[in-house]
Amino acid sequence: MSWSAPKRVATFLLAALGVAYPVLVYFGLSVFPPQFILIGLLIVVLLRAVTFVFAERYAAAGIAVLVAIIVAIGGIASEILAIRFYPVIVSLTMGSVFTITLFTDQPMVERLARIKIPDLDDYSIAYTRKLTKVWIGFFAANAIIAGWTAQYTSMEIWTLYNGLISYILMGLLFVGEWPVRRILRARHDRKTRNGTETP
TM segments (predicted)? Predict the structure, then answer.
């Protein structure tokens, strides 16, 4: 029996739980005590680590375990704050991963781009490095805002931002980058044809 289909289903369900996390917390706290929500969060994160291991993505599995440890330590001080700061930890983790790749031969966006286009030209390589920095800025800003909502706002506002607005902003950046990329690429190609390309 092949386990590929169950693994795909498990990966999808765990990812969906991650996306829906703020909404689940909002309604879950009206039914369960914070300790139960925190334990559930830790279980989901550790299950995510297991799926990464099965996919042989050991670095991602290690990061997931580290996130679980940070959340668990935070839960010792305050279950509610640990629950509400989880989106902050996720954004900081993503930003850190993207930042680390800047010090390698292939920044994160370049790695993703090469999945579709293995042979990138010099312009595209430089562009993906800049775009990686843009995403780092996004994750940093998102972490700051998410942290503010976790510490100073109501559950309603926390849920609204982390469960909806942050995803809209991420989508706008993802979609809005496409026309910007096309415009900049066309400008670069015109300069190249006219012999005015700058190094």
Answer: 32-51, 58-77, 83-104, 134-152, 158-180
**Whole-angstrom Cα distance, residue 90 to residue 133?**
17
* Of the candidates 77, 60, 90, 99, the residue with the CA atom closest to the CA atom of residue 162: 90
Task: Report pTM.
Answer: 0.86
Query: By the 8 A CB rule, do 41 and 71 touch?
Result: yes
Tell which residue, 149, 163, 27, has the closest CA to residue 81. 149
Amino acid of residue 100 = I
In sequence order, what are the residues at sequence separation of 6 or more whose Cβ sits closer than 8 angstroms to the Cβ of residue 139?
A: 91, 92, 94, 95, 98
Give me the domain span that covers residue 76: 5-195
C-beta of residue 91 within 8 angstroms of C-beta of residue 139: yes
Residue 30 is classified by DSSP as T
DSSP 3-state of 62: helix
Listed in sequence order, the DSSP H helices in the chain are 4-19, 21-28, 34-54, 58-77, 79-84, 86-101, 108-116, 122-152, 155-160, 166-194
Q: Are 128 and 184 in contact (CB under 8 A)?
A: no
Question: In this structure, are residues 120 and 112 in contact, taking their beta carbons and an 8 Å threshold?
Answer: no
Name the domain count of the chain. 1
DSSP state of 107: -
